[in-house]
Amino acid sequence: SIAILLYLARKFKTPDHWYPSDLQKRARVDEYLSWQHVNIRGKGSKLFLTKVLLPLLTGQPLSPEKLECVTEELNVVLKQFEEKFLQDKPFIAGSEISLADLVALVELMQPVGAGYDLFEERPKLAEWRRRVEEAVGKQLFQEAHEGILNTKNL
């Protein structure tokens, strides 16, 4: 949860870039963390549930209309994310990775795990993903997302 992440950042005095002491940068992180619950998390999770879990649980195929509707909802918030939060910066809070970037990418990996490559036609988003992966470490990133990226094996 967001509360636990913030607690851990404070308790263990993580490097400043994760949860910046600069009030403007911290406000950007806080703004994103508040916004993402019903936007990126809400729409990304909905696509994953609709495309992967519901057909698995019900044994019924997904209607193309339903998938199109859920995908369009996600596309709307992805555009907002790029325009409002990424803008022309390397990361959400500026030039360094923060908890906001980490949370954002984790949430975006759910639709990817459902087979929707949301980075394919979004070069700005794809470059941001590459920067986040590099900042975290590609191997750690792959390990952390191994389960969600292998849902097709269900």
Describe this structure in words.
With about 150 residues, the protein is mostly helical. The protein has one domain: Glutathione S-transferase Yfyf (Class Pi), Chain A, domain 2. The protein has 7 helices and no strands. The two termini are about 25 Å apart.
Q: Any low-confidence stretches, pLDDT <50, length ≥5?
A: none
- CA-to-CA gap between the ends? 26 Å
How many runs of DSSP E, i.e. beta strands?
0
Helix/strand order: HHHHHHH
**Helical run tally:** 7
The structural domain count equals 1
Q: In this structure, how is the largest beta sheet organized?
A: none
Keywords: Cytoplasm, Transferase
Protein name: glutathione transferase
Domain GST C-terminal: 22-154
Subunit structure: Homodimer.
Give a concise summary.
The protein contains 7 helices and no strands. It has helices at 2-11, 23-35, 40-58, 64-86, 99-113, 123-136, 138-149. The longest helix is centred in the middle third of the chain and has 23 residues, at 64-86.
What features would you highlight for this structure?
single chain; 154 residues; mainly alpha; Glutathione S-transferase Yfyf (Class Pi), Chain A, domain 2; 69% helix; globular
Set down the secondary structure blueprint:
Elements: H1 2-11, H2 23-35, H3 40-58, H4 64-86, H5 99-113, H6 123-136, H7 138-149
Catalytic activity: RX + glutathione = an S-substituted glutathione + a halide anion + H(+)
Enzyme class: transferase
InterPro entries: Glutathione-S-Trfase_C-like (IPR010987), Glutathione-S-Trfase_C_sf (IPR036282), GST_C (IPR004046), GST_C_Theta (IPR040077), GST_Theta (IPR051369)
